[in-house]
Amino acid sequence: MANSATIKNTKNPTEILGEYLLSSFENFIKYFEVEYYGHKANLYDYQLKITDKLEDVLAGKTTRLNINIPPRYRKTHVAVKLFIAYCMALTDGRAKFIHLSYSQTLALDNSEEIRDLIMSAEYQRIFPNVKIKKDSKSKEKWYTTNGGGVYATAAGGQVTGFGAGSSPEEYENDVNEVIENQLNDVIIEFFDGWNPNNKEKFGGAIIIDDANKPEDADSPTALKKVNQRYDTTIKNRVNSRHTPIINIQQRVATKDLSGYLQSLKTKTGEKVFDNLILPAIDEDGNPLCEAIHTLPELEQLKEENEPVFNCQYQQKPTALEGLMYEEIKRSELSLKTVIEGAEHIFSSTDANMSDGNDYFHTWFWAIYQSRVFIFDAIHEQFSARNLQPAYIERNTNLNVQVAVIEQNNQQTFIGEVEGNMSCMVLPIYNTSNKLARMIAKRYMMKHVYFLENPENKSYEKAIEHMKEFNKNGTSEDGHDDAEDAWTLGMEYLWENFRPLFIL
Asked: Going from the N-terminus, what domains does the chain have, and what CATH number goes with each?
């Protein structure tokens, strides 16, 4: 056996650096953050918690890992891009990964960045055994010269012809190789202070990053589809039972993929997935990372939209049960006082463009002494064609300054009234889901006061309808026109009078 001096002299500085970087994922991150990305070489406490869990995956301590973390905390950068690059160096390019996201574009962009890092001059200088095949130009699927590679696609896309991790035969061969080289590992540990911890057994993983779109939070069908996709396709794309599956995401709903994975149990009642939950504000009231969000900033986010904050930032989604608007305030101020002293008056309209059973609904709003009031409404089961004259007259008589109208499928109505209105007409086109918009603005109801208007029975009828409207977007009569027009009005206020809601 060679003596210590011989072993030390056979290694050049680059080899020693490579061994140091492979000794821990943390070391690898710190080095390439500086040398490749140009960032500071420091990791925050929450990032160290993530690296520790990923080290457990590499060591074979866990094969199923779920991580929940708020948006914009660089989870993809650490747990996807740098982790895969690290594993490729650790295995000389033998690791096989499947990377999934709700967005095909995001998955492909991540894949390309990983490949670019591996092909960089600094990475190649330190880890020359990891080579990308010259014909691997596709962002979707690329291979190394040692049989590893990455397959990136949407969580709902096709995953064919590629498996993650080592096959059973490859795994056993890796184990035997480790046993055969055990003496050499001991020598390296003795002289260089490094224990590779048998990470050579690792052969790749399935890494899912944000499987659910935030816009699908209110869609049971979309959520169920992703969960079914995991059961029928994703979990079966492993090459052996040893292949890890890692899911990392912000929570979007109680029944998103993380919720489903957390509910899985073994026959003995144990949880299938090891869970790392990282709320933006911990149980002691401390922020997860002050460099990203201070406590006052997080509290403001909570004030702006508490249910979204609890879900995406605190990782505690709530089921859509109960009433949508639990607090509807009435004011004893007179109509005359508010209208005459109003700083701003506007209307918000969801027009009924059919001759069916939908409602044509308009709310009339006033800002008075820095408070928001609703004081009148048009709530009639007629088409816009029939109510157009009354709509123009009401806006004129109430001195409306801006008429906000939902543009979706209502262009004809907008075009017909625009030239006859004495105020500005503001069409707004909504691309996001209606219920998601309602939920996002529901907590702003506490800033709104409804004036008494006993002469308008349809106004009172619309208020009562809102009192009975459910969080799942349903009502007994099947209509949501008043609620949709209210959300439209709140969106206008949020864009133009935001200080009223964050005092």
From this structure: 12-63+78-257 (3.40.50), 329-501 (3.30.420.280)
